[in-house]
Design goal:
The complex is a heterodimer of chains A (449) and B (176). Chain A has 449 residues and is α/β, with parallel strands linked by helices. Chain A has 14 helices and 19 strands. In chain A, the strands form three sheets. In chain A, strands 1-2-3-5-7-9-11-13-14-15-16-17-18-19 form a 14-stranded parallel β-sheet, covered by helices on one side. Chain B has 176 residues and is mainly alpha-helical. The chains are: A alpha/beta (449), B mainly alpha (176).
Chain lengths: 449, 176
Amino acid sequence: MEDGTIQDGKQKRPKSNNEEDVINQLPEGIPINILSKLSIHEAVRTSILSRKWKNLWPYFSGTLEFSGSPIMKDMKKDMKKITGRSLQMAMEIMYDAERQTYTNWIDELLASLKCSSLQGLKLWFPMKNVSDIDNWIQFAVRKKVRKLELYFGRAIDYVLPLQVFKVKRFDSLCVLRMKSVTVTEETLEYLLSDCPLLETLSLIDSEVPKTMKVSGSGSGSSLKLKCLELVRCLELTKVEIFAEKLVSFKYYGSNLETEFKSVSSLMEASFGGSFVEFVRESFMLQIKVLKLDITQNSPDVIYWLSQLPLLNNLKDLELVACGDDSIILGACVILLKTSPSLCRFTIKMLNTEPTFRTEHKFPKECQYSIKELELVGFCGAACQVELVMQILENAVELMKITIDTRLPTKPKVRLLGEEQFKTWNCEENRKHALRLKDKIPPSIEFVCL
Amino acid sequence: MAEEVSSQMNSLSISETNPSSSATISLVSGDDIVFKVEPTIAKEMETVQSFIDETDGKITTIPLPNISSHDLPYVIEYCEKSIAGKITKEFEAEFVKKLNNEEVKELFLAANYLNIKKLLDFLSQVIADRIANKSVEYVRRYFGIENDFTPEEEAKLREELAWTFTGVDPDDEDEN
């Protein structure tokens, strides 16, 4: 492709020492490109560089993240520890004062920004005052924010304000993630039909309409939505989804009535909570990436999983499980059997008793296609060792085993309480993992984390 | 080496008169090294493409005096990946691993000059990552910025902006 001789790789080009750097001499838009990739704290800090830089940061166009001041975070921790009503009240008053200082600071900062558009705005800390939040949302609309993330704690019942969007259309919005924020039926309809760029909608612990209709105005093809996440939205009883561009769908919650009309692009699915009826969805046949969290499922999950059709397209499977080891092993057997094209299989195990030994045996009737196996939450339990050994026996094409001795980050519901997690000993687990390594043929790559 | 290059330059200038003979575009670096690229690559470089468009495609040799032969292959590599739709996080991580601070800045200037938005955006992020959590002095040295504040002014500013100083790392010994 290239002619002539290329200069030696790391050769330095001559540059006199007192020559000012060219980046610094470029038009102002260029440093602004760079400072917009920094956090707002660091962007503001560049004002100390020189007189020229002092005036640049207000043109910041990156992502603003506000997750509470360090003092607020410390106070929250202290408030959990203290007992006694009067002390608690005193703490709360102090907390309110600190929050007031913090929100005033946010308001001042937002007021000094001169850029016409912003990449993102994240507001993720407990709030009390609805009108402050409304003002920030107005700011987001005005500044053409592309990514908006909202969480104001559980003490406030915040409803995403449709009236704000009626004044000025929120047509810049691409990603909306919210936790504990109420979305009414009208607002949902607005978001789906009047935000033409909306690609990701994620609602966690949020109050939503009983029946959610996820479709654009008119036909489903007008909807750009690619990713939909509904996690622990307790009011939800039914979803109707008509979204041709939808690639990824996540639902964690209780049983749900579903109607998927046109989801030909859907490739990634993630299910958790006690919802099991997904096994009957016809789109399961086209899924390539599947995550299942069965930590909150009762033993009948085995029955449901056995109802799955052959998942011929499934390449990547993640199973998050805890509790009865025989359920975990049973689920693994069924899932491996129903996934003839599976390449990667990740198991995240929680609170496994190291001593527990299962009687469950793997049937040897079929070969598994997996090439990579990852086990997260390894503690050397007999059943874990057995699981690896038995998969090994049936997976003739296996190339890599990753044993992760760290605890999986999930779930938030800690079934065995905190005690178990305090005694979690990665060093000890790693020793167990190395013992396991001795049993694995050297032709298979073994990684221990 | 110089002779070899200049003879190539001559042969290329001859081919200019007959654009139909060659579909490739020749990019000539500041130190006179010629890089032949597909026209699709040139399209990624807005500055180059507008030059081609202005001359109705008659000129296919484009001098890029501001870009060295050391940097140009990196730019071309990135553009090739970009066209192939193969810009992944892994590729970017590998790409940037090869580059020291000086090279990143030079590539940034090259991307700016050639007006390659994706590369410029990516390198902005790389530079931002490299100055994140660094001291004011480190960032001044990084960009070669002369501190034009009086000590009193700077002290006052530092006091006002004390809240921005959480999480600043101590300077590394090795700056490049």
